[in-house]
Amino acid sequence: MSLADIQASDPIWRSMEIVAMFLALLTPVIMVYLAVRFSRSLKRMTEKQWSNQKIVEKRLEIYDKMVPKLNDLYCFYCYIGNWNEISPMGVLRIKKELDKDMNIYTSLFSEDLSKKYAGFKQLCFVSMSGWEQDEKIKSYYELRQQNNADWKDGWIQYFDTNNVVEAIKIKERYDELIEAFKEDLITFHTGDYPGNSGPDT
């Protein structure tokens, strides 16, 4: 019996031929599937990197906008730098601007930064209830009265001298807040940024 006859009559041989043909047909399909999956994964990684970069850039923009104002409050309360050039009305205006910025951009930052901002603000201001009630500045006014050439006695009503916090505590909270800003700029773990839709599928 010839080799051809053996091959034709042997069912095992025929089965191996069928398997070989099936694998030959399946291999290109598998390669295409893997290529598509790799392409999609690469695209998702690129999109995430782009999203991360854009959010970091926005955070840096907000940092540059808010930190000088925070520094003015720090100087005002700790009697350093340009503290005697900042009026009580200016302090209250800065506070409102910072509150607005935090409300608008809070979703771009970590919860820790929001808590640090609230803690710093709590040391600096007394929030009054009621539509016609103004917030008050937790500070003494005598030195400001003496060192501000544009001082107006009507500003005294904006001070709360019963709940004044030591300058060292103001500095500690300020430093913690600035550090939280820095952490949000340099720390960007997967899943920690707004807009992430969850794990890849």
Secondary-structure element order, N to C? HHHHEEHH
Uncertain parts? 189-201
Evaluate the radius of gyration: 33 Å
The first-to-last residue Cα distance is: 57 Å
User: How is the biggest beta sheet arranged?
Assistant: 2 strands, antiparallel
Helix content: 55-70%
Beta-strand residue fraction: under 5%
Averaging pLDDT over every residue, what do you get?
80
- Count of alpha and pi helical runs: 6
Bulk shape = rod-shaped
How many strand elements?
2
* Content-based structural category: mainly alpha
Strand order of the largest sheet: 1-2
Give a structural overview.
This protein is mainly α and 201 residues long. Helices cover 66% and strands 2% of the residues. The chain has a two-stranded antiparallel ribbon. The longest helix is centred in the N-terminal third of the chain and has 68 residues, at 11-78.
Features:
two-stranded antiparallel ribbon; 201 residues; rod-shaped; 2% strand; mainly alpha; 2 strands
Can you summarize this structure?
The chain is an all-alpha fold.
Topology of helices and strands:
Elements: H1 3-9, H2 11-78, H3 88-105, H4 111-124, E1 125-126, E2 136-137, H5 142-147, H6 167-186
Antiparallel strand pairs: 1-2
